[in-house]
Amino acid sequence: MDMRCLRLRGQEADQTDLIWLGMSHILPGGGTALGGSLEEKFYVVLEGELTIRTEDGEETLGKWDSCRLAPNEKRALENRTNRPVTVLLAMPLPAAMRAPGTAEEEIPRK
Prior knowledge:
This protein has strands at 3-9, 19-26, 41-47, 50-54, 57-61, 66-69, 75-78, 85-92. It is mostly beta strands. It has a single domain, classed as Sandwich (Jelly Rolls). The chain has a five-stranded antiparallel sheet with strand order 1-2-8-3-6, with no helix packed on it. Strands 5-4-7 form a three-stranded antiparallel sheet, with no helix packed on it.
């Protein structure tokens, strides 16, 4: 739906141990369907205005705003404006793609 994601780090872009980064451009009227993933996601709006719709409601983010979506939380991204939106996405690699020895339970927490 008029959205393109460029992988910056991780997955097929290069080797990372725990996370991958992507940058998406969403054209006016574009977005994604309501869906979720097993991993948590962090979105940062770099340019434009992005509406994030979940099963609990919706929130509109502007430049430099960010949000976190929990694992399995369904979300839809929507550009309801007449200008393109640029969004940075950071999320953990799926467990099967993580480097050996970096399982979630082995990561020290503060």
